Amino acid sequence: MKRDTLRIVFMGTPDFAVATLKTLIDNDYTVVGVITAPDKPAGRGRKLNESAVKKYAVEQGLTILQPTNLKNEDFVNELKGLEANLQIVVAFRMLPEVVWGMPKYGTFNLHASLLPNYRGAAPIHWAIINGETKTGVTTFFIDEKIDTGAMILQEDVAISGDETVGSLHDKLMNIGSALVLKTVDLIQQDTVETTIQPKTIDLKTAYKLNKDNCKIDWSLDLNTIYNKIRGLNPFPAAWCHLINGDEDLNVKIFKVGKEKDTHNFENGILLVTKNELKVAVTDGYLHIEELQLPGKRKMDVKSLLNGYDFHKNSKML
Question: What number does CATH give the domain 3-189?
Answer without folding.
Answer: 3.40.50.170
